[in-house]
Model the fold of this input.
Amino acid sequence: MIIVMKPNYTPQQLEGVISSVKAHGLTPHITYGVETAIIAAVGEFHVTSLDPFEVLEGVESVKRISQPFKLGSRQAHPENSIFPIDGFTIGGNDIAIIAGPCSVESRSQILETAHAVREAGANALRGGVFKPRTSPYSFQGLGEEGLEYLAEAREQTGMPIVVEIMSQTQLDVMLKYVDVFQVGARNMQNFNLLRALGETRKTILLKRGLSATIEELLMSAEYLLAGGNKQVVLCERGIRTFETTTRNTTDINAIPVLKKLTHLPVILDPSHSTGHADYVAAIARAAIAAGADGLIVEVHPEPSKAVSDGKQSLKPEAFAEMVKQIKAIAKIMDRRVAPIKKPVTAGW
Ligand code: PEP
Ligand code: MN
Done:
């Protein structure tokens, strides 16, 4: 942290700043200029807020030199975090594709979708069973019944399952079934939930909040990492802007920005970021070109009949076409879509 004194600072004010720096466990290194003085405060102690220094008398400005997200920052961990998710790895050279319906609606719907996305090249299956709906009167998800169907789909296709958790009360039942916990945009700052998930050793897919800054997303990831869970994947899923032609605005900048700031894998959800099936493949291609480590895409065998997010869901054929395009873009980027290792064991 760098503290710059006002031009007319007094020796007492400088003394006050030095004591405050020391009181925070930091060592002050002072450089005297012609009119001002600059204090570089260094040390192990992590300053989460600059306020205690900004309010001190005689202080002109305070600037952070290290990131407030300590464990997630590339400063602390320059190499990419690469970890396995049953059958593939994420964060390295391979691009991971997660696909499936917004919601698990029935046994046949999830099994049909699972086989279709697997055949098209997906690495993991998504499906919500506890849905964060804007209206309490909308379909809320099948709950444990949906988890049973997902487990059957995993059994048949070999794909790990990615499921959204909305509350700690769902943790016990979900731990029995789920490979990757998705924390949805609306829960990005549900700190109690993040702390509980930080205690688990399951992979967490953390989505960016609707109006969250990149730094806020990284601070939320910090809650998971601080609990000792190192398997955290970040997901850009579009943010709220003044634009209304799409459901959200894909913050494509977030991908290279996050890749620079953190060692954690970064993926994009082009379904929620656009809200329309017509734009999903284009934005998915852009994400890979921008350096994303993967995609999470909504696919439904009959989008017109989907109970949630049908408008943004790809039909299996469109998804297969998208995967082909992603493979081509990956090649240009000297990467590849993660290969499918496990054989499909059964039909349905
Ligand atoms: C979802 O993945 O279906 C979902 C609800 O996403 P988000 O939290 O990004 O809105
Ligand atoms: Mn959805």
User: Anything to note?
Assistant: DSSP finds eleven helices and 15 strands in the chain.
